[in-house]
Specification:
This protein is mostly beta strands. Helix content is about 5%, strand content about 40%.
């Protein structure tokens, strides 16, 4: 696993993960009943730290975790998302198959989107026998394809996730939520917030006031997720993490 900190000219600094590398950010938040995650992300080429053009890719897979996108909450002590408590964005599905992971142009000009099995973007795993995905079709966050994003309001795109439980000691997550936006008659798992100046303050503002969409039923975990996990599988592009905020609301 490797990563670099890159200062985008006249903008912000971003953590750039190498291809097939993961960011694991353990957290300690005792007795939480409402916890929320917001992350500003963008993409760049494997060979250039600030060139988000020409990233189209079809990654042929037999359903390996290492060939899927994973971004969200996870247990910190195990790597494979399907084998541990996980809730977040993916291009996997409850029934895995040899469907390729694809990075393609989005519905909005000069943006990228990823897809995999039936374009499903959200999954929940209890680390045992249960594995769920969103019942409909939804893409992951659209990400900008401009080095200087004059058209799309900002290079970094914000996605937001939320988990709630009835008590601060329960191993059952009562509800899972995500931010959703409909653009060009297509649903995307992002907050429709793009910025050239992504910051903790901007994330906190949206975590507090954002509109949340419910996903699935309650799930009993053997171990509740205790880390933020971001993993990008593609070989021609790298994931840039601009700002990350994990906040306990109750």
């Amino acid at each position: 696993m490797s990563a670099i900190i890159f200062e985008i000219p006249n903008a912000d600094k971003a953590l750039i993960l190498d291809s097939k590398s993961a960011l694991v950010y353990p957290f300690f938040s005792p007795n939480w009943m409402d916890i929320r995650l917001g992350v500003f992300i963008s993409l760049t080429k494997l060979s250039d730290n600030n060139d988000p053009t020409g990233l189209s890719e079809t990654l042929v897979t037999t359903g390996l975790d290492s060939d899927r996108v994973w971004m969200g909450f996870k247990r910190s002590d195990l790597y494979l998302p399907r084998e541990t408590a996980f809730y977040g964005l993916s291009c996997s599905g409850a029934t895995e198959a040899g469907t390729s992971s694809v990075l393609e142009g989005g519905d909005v000009s000069q943006r990228w989107r990823y897809k995999g099995i039936a374009n499903k973007a959200l999954v929940i795993s209890d680390g045992n026998s249960n594995y769920f995905d969103n019942s409909g079709t939804i893409f992951g966050p659209e990400m900008n394809a401009e080095a200087v994003p004059s058209v799309n309001a900002g290079r970094a795109s914000l996605f937001m996730l939320r988990m709630t439980r009835a008590t601060g000691t329960s191993s059952t997550i009562s509800a899972f939520y995500f931010a959703k936006t409909n653009r060009s008659a297509v649903d995307y798992a992002d907050a429709n917030v793009f910025s050239d100046a992504p910051s903790l303050g901007l994330i906190r503002q949206n975590l507090k006031s954002g509109t949340w969409t419910s996903l699935g039923a309650s799930v009993a975990f053997a171990n509740v997720p205790d880390a933020v996990f971001c993993y990008w599988p593609f070989a021609n592009s790298r994931l840039r993490v601009h700002s990350l905020c994990l906040e306990k609301f109750a």
